[in-house]
Write a structure and sequence with these properties.
Blueprint lengths: L13 H5 L2 H13 L18 E5 L2 E4 L4 E4 L14 H13 L8 H13 L5 E5 L2 H16 L3 E5 L18 H4 L16 H4 L2 E4 L4 H11 L3 E6 L15 H12 L2 E6 L10 H6 L5 E4 L10 E5 L1 H4 L27 H16 L2 H23 L4 E5 L2 E5 L16 H14 L1 E2 L9 E2 L6 H17 L6
Parallel strand pairs: 3-13, 5-6, 5-7, 7-8, 8-9
Antiparallel strand pairs: 1-2, 2-3, 4-10, 9-10, 11-12, 12-14
Helix pairs in contact: 3-12, 4-12, 8-9, 13-15, 14-15
This protein binds pyridoxal-5'-phosphate.
């Protein structure tokens, strides 16, 4: 098929479609039982997702028996490669010893001790099963601690799938309003206005705008919840001094600073982004890498704040009236904790960060080079082992800067690369991708060759 100027009209989904007939058939079956044929919305893409059969080390294999070099890495958790032998062994041993009892288990306590050892700002910890649960509970504890109700979050930031966090995640300019004083816009339907009214949006990387919003709402604000690197908009790095400024301002205003380290925790270093950047938040949420591929998340902070969960000696009140509730049947699941503990031990004992950061540097700077060589406008941002390719040559500092990137070209580039055998995250521009401990230099070389071919394939005009 060609368009008016004689150039090909490119169907960049075709190569992937041709190699995944089983997935196409399976997708029909999946769509009958689940919306979009996937278990979580971000897994859906056009024309259909491929379904995975196995994962080992740096690779995943689909049900058509295609192998992909994996940089999606389960959206972040896989830091040691898929099925690391020590993690697998720890899981098997725990499965043989004890499944869920919903009575406390030493492996969960040991796990929490390890978290507290690794992250200096975290004195006490509670566990959850997902990042969403962790942020929801951390916000509640911050409200309880401050006696205030509202929270602030950056526009364009994702802090989980609960109603308080699904505010100003994605929206257009008309809805979001002025860049320095953004409106709060619910993400999707089904979210009560009453919840939206408890959230104020701040403009990430805009000090003056952030300060004006926080000062205006200070009396009502329990917490600012923010990612140290805004991975929910790809890979937005904080401008020099932004986090220091936010640390000082929240302390001055009596607002709990929650660093949402669901993506960065244990990935950017043993103490997460806070160790890397030298900032101490009041509370921290973590997930993903924390479970080494199993469902494990949590939140923590100083005992003074975490004690909000502990019913005090009630003075004329029922104990439930005087504390912030945290609970969950599956919290601290022994199998997940065994996997998490094995992962954290390896992170502390081996040269994991040196390895994934070095390969991250090679991958992401290499991607910039090959995009430049081919002549496709791209800005590649990364911190250590995580980064993203934005399909624009504009500078990317704030959420709204990401609107300059060509999302269609990004999705096409991703599809071409997937067909070539590498998964650079998923085809959504606001996601990001990673390096992992099992990656080798040869695999990075191969990934860059695949990426270059994919850039060549999308080097044509887009509307
Ligand atoms: C920064 C951040 N917070 C919270 C979440 C929610 O975590 P989960 O998907 O485990 O619920 C995510 C998920 O990607 C995230 O990136």
């Amino acid at each position: 098929m060609t368009d008016g100027d004689g150039r090909g009209k490119y169907d960049h989904a075709r190569p992937l479609r041709e190699m995944t007939p089983e997935s196409e058939r399976f997708h029909e079956r999946a769509r009958a039982v689940t919306p979009l044929g996937v278990e979580s919305n971000v897994r859906a893409f056009d024309p259909y997702p491929f379904y995975v059969d196995r994962a080992e080390g740096s690779y995943v294999r689909d049900i058509d028996d295609n192998e992909y070099l994996d940089f999606l890495l389960a959206l972040g958790p896989i830091v040691l490669g898929h099925g690391h032998p020590a993690v697998r062994e720890a899981v098997k041993a725990q499965v043989d010893r004890c499944d869920l009892t919903a009575t406390p288990n030493p492996v969960a306590i040991e796990y929490m001790e390890t978290v507290a050892e690794m992250i200096p700002s975290v004195e006490q910890v509670r566990l959850a099963n997902s990042g969403s649960e962790a942020t929801m509970h951390a916000i509640r504890v911050a409200r309880s601690y401050t006696g205030k109700e509202k929270i602030a979050k950056p526009e364009g930031g994702y802090a989980g799938a609960h109603d308080y966090a699904l505010q100003s995640v994605y929206a257009d300019e008309a809805a979001l309003g002025p860049a320095d004083r953004p409106n709060t816009v619910p993400y999707g339907t089904g979210i009560p206005d009453a919840v939206t009214e408890t959230v104020v949006a701040i403009p990430f990387n805009d000090r003056a705008g952030t300060e004006a919003v926080l000062r205006e709402h200070a009396d009502e604000l329990a917490a600012v919840i923010i990612e140290p690197v805004m991975c929910s908009a790809g890979c937005l790095k904080a401008r020099e001094g932004y986090h220091e400024f936010l640390r000082e301002l929240t302390a001055e205003l009596g607002v709990v600073l929650i660093w949402d380290e669901v993506m960065t925790g244990f990935r950017l270093g043993p103490a997460g982004a806070q160790g890397r950047f030298g900032i101490e938040p009041d509370m921290t949420t973590f997930a993903k890498v924390a479970g080494g591929g199993y469902q494990l998340a949590g939140f923590g902070g100083p005992a003074e704040i975490m004690r909000e969960i502990e019913p005090p000696e009630a003075e004329g009140r029922e104990s439930w009236e005087a504390s912030a509730y945290h609970g969950g049947t599956y919290n601290g699941h022994p199998v997940s904790c065994a996997a998490g503990l094995a992962t954290l031990e390896i992170l502390q004992e081996r040269d994991v960060y040196e390895h994934i950061d070095r390969l991250g540097e090679r991958l992401f700077t290499g991607l910039q080079e090959v995009a430049d060589d081919v002549g496709v406008p791209a800005t590649v941002e990364h911190v250590g082992s995580l980064g993203q390719v934005y399909m624009t040559d504009a500078e990317i500092h704030r959420y709204r800067d990401t609107w300059a990137s060509n999302t269609d070209r990004f999705a096409d580039w991703w599809r071409e690369a997937a067909a070539g055998g590498a998964l650079f995250g998923n085809p959504i521009q606001s996601e990001r991708f990673f390096t992992t401990y099992s990656h080798t230099d040869e695999q990075i070389d191969r990934a860059l060759e695949i990426a270059e071919d994919a850039f060549r394939a999308v080097d044509h005009p887009y509307e």
